[in-house]
Amino acid sequence: MKIHPFRVLAGKRNLAALTIGLVLLLYIGFLIISNYLSQVDLQKTALEKLRQDTEKLAMSVCYFCAERKIDLKNLSENRAVSVYFENKALGMSMEYGLKASLNTIRYQFDRLMEEKKFGGKRIYPRVTFIRPNGELLVDTGLINLEQDQGRDWNEFLTPDSRDVTFIDKHNPQIPMMIVTIPYFFKGNFAGQLVAWVNLVDVCEHLVKKGGPSNRYTSFVSIKDHLQSAEYMRAKFSPFSLSELMNIEMGKTRRLEVTDHTGIKRDMIVIRVPIKGTPLFLTWVMPASDILGRRSPFHLLVAMAVLSIAVLIGMMLFWRVTTNNLVLEARFEEASKRRQEIEVKNRQLEQEINERKLAEEALRESEERFGLALRGADLGLWDWNVETGDVIFNERWTKMLGYSLDEIEPHVRGWKKLLHPDDTPRVMEVLKDNLEGKTTLYETEFRLRAKEGGWKWILARGMIFERDETGKPLRSVGTHLDINERKQAEELLRKAHDELERRVKERTSELMEANEQLKGEIEERKRAEETLRNSEEKFRFLAEKMVDIVWTIDRDFKTTYVSPSIENVLGFTPEERKRQSLEEMITPESLQKVQEMFIGELQRDEEGTVDPDRSVTIEVEYYRKDGSTVWMENIVKAIRDPGGAIVGMHGVSLDITERKIIEEEKTKLQSQLQQVQKMESIGTLAGGIAHDFNNILGIIVGNTEMAMDDVPEWNPARHNLGEIRTASMRARDMVKRILAFSRQSPQEKKPVRISPIIKESLKLLRSSIPTTIEIHQNIASESDTVRTDPTQINQVLINLCTNAAHAMGEKGGVLEVSLKNIEINEGSAIHYHDLSSGKYVRLTVSDTGHGIEPKILERIFDPYFTTKKVDEGSGMGLSVVHGIVKSHGGSVSVNSEPGKGTIFHVFFPCIEDEPEPEIEITVEIPRGKERILFVDDEKAMVDAIQPMIEHLGYQVTARTSSIEALEAFRANPDRFDLVITDFTMPNMAGMELAKELLKLRSDILIILCTGYSEHINEDKAKGSGIRAFVMKPVVLGEIANTIRKVLDQEKEQ
Amino acid sequence: MNRKKKVLFCATTLLCIAAMLGIISWGSASGADLPEIKKRGVLRHLGVPYANFVTGSGDGMDVELVKRFAEHLGVRYEYVKTGWENVIGDLTGKKVKSKGSDVTILGEVPVKGDLIANGLTKIPWRQKVVDYSTPTFPTQVWLVARADSTIEPIKPTGDIDKDIVQVKELLKDRCVLGKAKTCLDPSLYRLKETGAEVKLFSGNLNELVPVVIKGEAEATILDMTDALIALEKWPGKLKVIGPISSMQEMGVAFAKTSPGLREAFNRFFEKCKADGTYQRLVKKYYPCVFMYYPAFFEKM
Predict the structure, then answer these.
(1) Searching chain B, which residue's CA lies closest to the CA of residue A97?
(2) % pLDDT > 90, chain A
(3) Closest CA to A96 of B144, B297, B146
């Protein structure tokens, strides 16, 4: 029996299919089991996550409860509660005072209730204080009417607990959590603070927050109190609610829960305790949300059944497919054979066609060859070298006018026609070709034509066939009639000869003209030499000039510039010619030049000016190094023959020095004006200060008198003290103003500068924008300097004001520090202008825009400023420099643009102890002597007279020095002391003193003077003045001075 | 005889003229009435800083009340600061001296204000020289002592008169502070008769408590309102012993020549009570007073 190959193939495929099917079955089984296991894991994970979420929620409730504990704790520590018990302990009765204390407690309770809210709803609906006997002491009010019915408040008392506790009480209507803490006064139990918290609100605001309310339900209830979950009746049936409340704590359970409509649902329930409270949290959610709608086992079975069905289907499909394959293979074999026969048929047809085409092509080729020969007008010959026979074609014979019959078809016939002159040359060519020296030959010769005469022929030929020894057997070639070409060549030759003849004739003519031209060139050379000499003279002049000579065209392009430009501006003339006007001059000058040019053009067009005029203009040019130079240009127009301006020429003169002198002049004028302005400000400040001192005198005087009247315990005394301090500060400010305007004597004395700097910084704070932070590091141990405190103040204020200005609105950090520096011989090199010794270094740094290096050297120059007009005089740093130098110190600056500036100021330290501040003594010296007080200002008299009278003295006051003198003259012994103002009309204080001393030489005189008044102490004392009192007059100061002068006199 | 008659006639005429001038001058020297105030466009409030009635800082229960009254009248409000010594004179134009319930006119002084409102208690001598509005505030005078004082607070009996007797019995040889010419004038309550060492304070009323705390006196008499503020301000440093007077009333004082202004105020005050404005002011400045005098406020 023969086995069909297709059956074998099908049998093998079935085996393979079976194997694949088994493998597939195993694989599907593996997938189903894996899927089952992963489903189980997912459920576990979901439950674990649910438990964690529930615990998180419980934690948030736990935090909430902790906050409530803190609230109660704070309330129990509130002063209002203890005050009540203190007052009670003092024996106060409710009717007389104690009730107010209770009200204060109630107020605290109300405040707690009002402050602690869930959104707009109170956390505490009620707060009470229960007495140890179970009575309510304070109660903010009932939550509902039935709440307190039958309630025993003793149940709330927890005297044994010192901490906040949660009592698991509840209200049948509203589930309430109660937070309570015992209160102890002086160690004894004094009552219980109790606050209610609504569990429903806790649920609403803490527990439900964030969850989709329809599917999840979570609620808080009190442990072991089913009623505390009663408010969930709206969600669950009573039975289910009871079941939920009995679930073991911390466990996850799957329950069938009946909702309020009676529908049973498969639910997952978790119940967790809330730490530190009797509360627990219950979370209920549909099991399908956590575990899915189908269990993993069901899924496993369904998938297995599905897989088996799929496998059976696949096997059936495989069998049908195999049969189909066998049929398809047979069909394909038959198709292949039929295709092979068709291919062979097509090959035969193609060969037949190709042969036909080749024959046709051959025929066409022959035709084309014949046509080509005819077209080329060639005669052909074919020479049998052995026999001498030659075959000529018809054209060959016709070329000479013969017919074929008339020419002997032998080489002899050709030779007969050959021109005798050409025969030797042609034979030589033929010989070379026959001997193989040439493969192809080409030669021209003449043949006799039938009508007589000779025809030029171009012959080409080659050996076509040779025998084995190389002997030529056959030669073929062509003849071409070139008779016409030969004739044309002859004509050309003749024409060439004629041309040569004529060239010779023309050349001789040119030779003659050349000689003439040479003569003319010699003459022109001489003229050029003369011109060059002249130009060199001018060039020498232009090149040696200091000024620049130039010409420009109408587009301001330089057409000529003298080399002197390189000395003045650094550019070579070639470089200059490549520059545009914008590159040559500054933008301001460019505008000026353009305006000048346009103006001149207009005037030119109007015809009102001399066309040959020159214009002078000062222009600021750029040098090659980028700096600028001022030049005066004398410019004239260059015109074409028609008079139109085509350019300009001019001379530029360096006027930089002149400009500097002019600027200096302007600057000096400005400085002069500034000095005059400062002088007038100084005078004005002096005048204002004088008046202001008088006003301050009145304020200080009256304040001090009032202070004397007001007892220590009276709060008004403190206020008066504040007025006095402020007035003293105002006095210092006046002093500063006068110091600035140079009208105050600047006395240097040992002073500790740390307090001055701290005080100045306090004052500065109010004038420096709040965007600027002021850091101070005043850590100097030895800070005593011989100085005028006002000058230290002035240095600091100037430096800090500049720093603040540098930082501007953006703000930054202003740092002021004070440190001790000791400079020895080794380190002195690092400090310019300072010798070795001890110094105190004041450093002021800022984070502002910094100072450009190019102006850094000029900042201490008087009137140098980068500020706008009205922002600064340019004197600040100059004054600082002056003050520091006058102290034997030094000032240095470090600055970097964009980073900030640091000023270091060095003052020499001294060992002397600073002079103690004059303190107002508590005991103000008094007396009963008689005093004449003179001041031209009535307000001053009104202020000072009662002040002195207040000290016990008998005062006679006068507002005119003349009247005072008259009063004194009337009875010189009536007065023990005279106090007089310095500046008075008609008769000044000094003059009055002189007159008084004339009347009574031992009269004691005290001079009252303001800071603005220049008075020499020695001169004054020489005139008999016993003491000075500075305005504004301070009670303590004048009391001490009067007493001192009077007592000195008594001692003497 | 004729001459005698002539002299008598002239003297009688002169006396009549003098009497008329006196009446005219009394009238013209007293506080202005409503038309004049409206014409002037300013209502001048005489005030002495005291308790929370006039704090001295620009506010206070009476300051707010009078400001509202000025607004109600359509005139500008102006506060005129005065002292207890001069407050009556500044309103009436008469310098007066009180002794118990009696008052003596000593002379004339310039009028500086149109009404007094700073917790002015109705006391007999004042009622002789000024007219009071309807009562605006209840009060009582209490004896307040330093916390460490040996004077023990009384046990209330429920009878105010018995309570006052109890308090007065405790005062023998005790140093008690008061202030003359005010409602805290010890003579009004006959404290000297109790054997107490009565001290008259020269400072203002707000300084009585600090002086007691400092130890300059053992006790002082205080308006109940002031005592409540003191208890709040200095907790644990004071104790209320008990009452010195029965319940009193405070009101806004007007010159006797200003009946129109007084009437206008009474109408305005009724309106404030009706719309709750007054209760709000009391709650703001004296939240505890409702507990002590519920009856007074229930009437409102």
Answers:
(1) B240
(2) 10
(3) B144
